[in-house]
C-alpha cells in the first residue's frame, strides 16, 4: 500500500515546526490525524493556537481539508511534576553543568512518541510524523536522528507493529523550514505559520514580529528570527533554500 493511501499521526504542538510537518504529511498521506500534549509547559498558549491552525488549514487549503481527521489532546501533566526545567517552571533559561540548556525536559520526546504510537496502533495509522531536528536545535538528545531510529525499533518491537517514524525537518535549518512551508502551501501557508503558530518559550502573544509572535529574546525566538532573516535574504537573492534539500526518509537522513 502506498503512502497516499495510508494514515499518518502528526505530533502537533502548534509551533512552527510541527505545523510545517503537518503540511508535509497532508501533502503525502490520504488521512492525517494530530496529537498534542499538555505537560504543564509555561508556553501553554501553544495549545490554544492548535485548533485555530487546524481550522485555517481546513478553510484555506481545500486540497488538504478533507484529509484532516481527529485531533487528540493528551494530559501529560506528570512530566511537570517529575521535571524541574525552564519549560515547566518559573526559572531563568540558562545552560546547565551537563552542557544542556535547562529548557530540556528529560524524556519528553520519548514519552510523546510512545503515547503517539499507542494512539496510532489503536487508530490504524502506520506513520508517525515529528518535527525534531538536529540542525537548528538546543542540543536536546531526544531530538537526534539516532534517538528517532532507536525509538522506531523499540516501538515496533514492543507493539509488534510496522510503524514508520518520519522526521521531515531533521537535516534542515529554520530558514529552510520557512522555505519548506512556502513550497508546500505557498504564501498562504507561510502567512499562517507567521500569524498563528507559537514557538516562544515565554508564551508571549503580545509582540508581533515579521516571523510571528514572541518575546523576541528567548532561544526559540532568536532561532526563529535568525531563520526568517536568512530565509528572506535568500528569497530576495533568488538563492534556493529548501528546494535543494530532499525530504529525509523515515527516521534517517
TrEMBL record:
Keyword entries, A-Z: ATP-binding, Ligase, Metal-binding, Nucleotide-binding, Queuosine biosynthesis, Zinc
Residues annotated as signal peptide: none
Chain positions recorded as Zn(2+) binding sites: 200, 215, 218, 221
Cofactor notes: Binds 1 zinc ion per subunit.
Keyword Magnesium: no
Pfam families: QueC (PF06508)
Coiled coil: none
GO biological process: tRNA queuosine(34) biosynthetic process
Superkingdom: Bacteria
GO molecular function: ATP binding; ligase activity, forming carbon-nitrogen bonds; zinc ion binding
Top-level EC class: ligase
Record-listed E.C. numbers: 6.3.4.20
Binding site for ATP: 12-22
Cofactor(s) recorded in Swiss-Prot or TrEMBL: Zn(2+)
UniProt record similarity statement: Belongs to the QueC family.
Annotated protein name in UniProt: 7-cyano-7-deazaguanine synthase
Gene name in the database record: queC
Amino acid at each position: 500500500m502506498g503512502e497516499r493511501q495510508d494514515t499518518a499521526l502528526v505530533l502537533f504542538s502548534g509551533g512552527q515546526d510541527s505545523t510545517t510537518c503537518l503540511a508535509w504529511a497532508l501533502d503525502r498521506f490520504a488521512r492525517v490525524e494530530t496529537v498534542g500534549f499538555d505537560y504543564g509547559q509555561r508556553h501553554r498558549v501553544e495549545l490554544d493556537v492548535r485548533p485555530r491552525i487546524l481550522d485555517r488549514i481546513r478553510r484555506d487549503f481545500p486540497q488538504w481539508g478533507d484529509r484532516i481527521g481527529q485531533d487528540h489532546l493528551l494530559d501529560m501533566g506528570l512530566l511537570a511534576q517529575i521535571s524541574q526545567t525552564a519549560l515547566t517552571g518559573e526559572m531563568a533559561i540558562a545552560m546547565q553543568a551537563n552542557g544542556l540548556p535547562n529548557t530540556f525536559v528529560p524524556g519528553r520526546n520519548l514519552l510523546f512518541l510512545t503515547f503517539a504510537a499507542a494512539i496510532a496502533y489503536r487508530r490504524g495509522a502506520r506513520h508517525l510524523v515529528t518535527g525534531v531536528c538536529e540542525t537548528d536545535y538546543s542540543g536536546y538528545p531526544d531530538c537526534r536522528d539516532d534517538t528517532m531510529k532507536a525509538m522506531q525499533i523499540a516501538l515496533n518491537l514492543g507493539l509488534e507493529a510496522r510503524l514508520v517514524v518520519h522526521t521531515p525537518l531533521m537535516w534542515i535549518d529554520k530558514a529552510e523550514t520557512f522555505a519548506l512551508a512556502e513550497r508546500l502551501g505557498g504564501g498562504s501557508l507561510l502567512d499562517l505559520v507567521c500569524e498563528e503558530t507559537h514557538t516562544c518559550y515565554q508564551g508571549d502573544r503580545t509582540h508581533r514580529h515579521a516571523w510571528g509572535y514572541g518575546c523576541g529574546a528567548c532561544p526559540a525566538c532568536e532561532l526563529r528570527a535568525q531563520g526568517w532573516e536568512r530565509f528572506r535574504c535568500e528569497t530576495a537573492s533568488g538563492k534556493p533554500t529548501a528546494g535543494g534539500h530532499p525530504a529525509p526518509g523515515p527516521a534517517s537522513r
